[in-house]
Design goal:
By secondary structure, this protein is α/β, with parallel strands linked by helices. It folds into 2 domains: 25-109, no CATH class; 117-250, Rossmann fold, CATH 3.40.50. The protein is built from 11 helices and 11 strands. The strands form 3 sheets. It has a 5-stranded parallel β-sheet. Strands 3-4-6-5 form a 4-stranded mixed β-sheet, with helices on both faces. Strands 1-2 form a two-stranded antiparallel sheet. Helix 9 links the parallel strand 9 (173-178) and strand 10 (196-200). Helix 4 packs across helix 5 (85-92). Residues 118-250 form the PurE domain. GO terms for molecular function: hydrolase activity. This is PurE domain-containing protein.
């Protein structure tokens, strides 16, 4: 349950549309519902502005279906991240009202129209980084942000980046996704006047150490204005980018 739904519920009580007891029944499972194998955090949307998201990888499929079924009882718009085909098919056993973003590995269950504001630019070094970038982009869009995708503009052909600078500079925040040595974030941060969220990916040859080299490059960047998330953490980058973009919009920016 998010803040808007609580306000709507309280307004109905105030206007005599529902009784206090009926309202109390709606609020009964706040702040969380205990399913034994999961504690569903209904209060998260009120506390932080975004509802709980299901991390699918590693979950038992029966547990996953139970979580989705319970969240649907509250008419929730559900994001399930790190969702492979098995997860998608399991959710289909609960509801067919689901959109599967294969590259991003995200299922959006009970999708709802969301007004999109501002702009987040999601930029990748190479095409192999696109799945992580798509995770960030889809999360941003689901949370109500416009997204500009600028893919395959890494430093090996830096003229491609320069050719797309106007599109990148038009955003309120940039998500820079790169593997190999991870130099893209530093270059971008030196060219824009907005925050850059650096996302190292596990793309690269042996000495990349599954993304460690890119992570260390981004952490040690000499460019200011960079924040770094964990390796392959497109979700974390998209979540943070949404908060920054909406913060800009709240101050009357683009």
């Amino acid at each position: 349950m998010n803040r808007e739904r609580v306000i709507e519920l309280l307004s109905k009580v105030k206007n005599g549309e529902i009784s206090v007891d009926e309202a109390a029944e709606h609020l009964r499972d706040l702040p969380f519902k205990d399913l034994d194998y999961a504690k569903i955090d209904h209060h998260r949307g009120i506390r932080v502005g975004y509802p709980e998201v299901i991390y699918s990888q590693g979950k038992d499929l029966e547990h996953l279906k139970g979580i989705v079924a319970h969240m649907l009882e509250r008419d929730a718009n559900i994001l399930a991240t790190r969702a492979d085909e098995r997860v998608y098919n399991a959710i289909l056993e609960v509801t067919d009202n689901v959109v599967y973003h294969r590259l991003a590995r995200i299922c959006i269950v009970n999708p709802k129209e969301v007004e999109k504001v501002g702009k987040v630019a999601v930029v990748t070094g190479g095409t192999a980084d696109v799945p992580v970038a798509e995770e960030a982009a889809v999360v941003c869009e689901a949370f109500g942000n416009n997204v500009e995708r600028v893919y395959d503009v890494g430093v090996a052909g830096i003229h491609r980046l320069f050719n797309n600078l106007d599109r990148i500079r038009d955003a309120n925040v940039v998500v820079a996704v790169a593997g190999m040595e991870g130099a893209l974030a530093s270059v971008v941060a030196g060219l824009v006047n907005v925050p850059v969220i650096a996302v190292p990916t596990s793309v690269g040859y042996g000495a990349n150490f599954n993304g460690l080299s890119a992570l260390l490059t981004m952490l040690n960047s000499c460019a200011a204005g960079i924040g770094v998330v964990n390796i392959d953490n497109g979700f974390g980058a998209g979540y943070l980018a949404s908060q920054i973009n909406k913060g800009f919009m709240g101050r009357g920016n683009r």
